[in-house]
Specification:
With about 130 residues, the chain is mainly α. It contains six helices and no strands.
């Protein structure tokens, strides 16, 4: 009598674990909507939050990981000739190159001068997005 109960409990536990794992994976995959304007604005806000260190909960290592993850997802989704002609895209690509190249070679946070320049570029990209959209 105890063995069937234990097997059912184990099966239920396995099912819940698989469902939670699937939900987490789909939530991460659903980060990008497939709409360039919305995804670009989300990326800009994410990078501003990470670079300005306005989030006291996130430590610098987590901020770097979050920035790189957002950049990789966006760059993986949006590339090619379709976006090359957009000023917002080329400006964002400049930001990606600055941030990603620094984080790949160093574990330190960006220098204040670079942060200021990147935030200025993000403002330009946002302005270009508003004109394009």
């Amino acid at each position: 009598m105890l063995k069937p109960f234990f097997l059912r409990f184990l099966g239920l536990l396995l099912s819940v674990t698989l469902m939670l794992g699937w939900a987490t994976a789909s939530a991460q995959a659903a980060r990008l909507t497939g709409k360039y304007y919305e995804d670009s604005m989300t990326l800009i806000q994410t990078l501003r939050t990470v670079l300005s260190e306005a989030d006291p909960v996130m430590n610098p290592e987590e901020a770097q990981v979050e920035a790189m993850k957002a950049i990789q997802e966006f760059a993986g989704r949006y590339h090619g000739h379709r976006y090359d002609k957009l000023q917002s895209f080329t400006t964002l690509r400049t930001v990606f190159n600055t941030v990603a190249s620094h984080y790949r070679t160093s574990k330190r946070p960006l220098d204040p001068e670079k942060v200021e320049r990147v935030l200025m570029q993000l403002d330009r990209a946002e302005l270009a997005l508003r004109r394009e959209g």
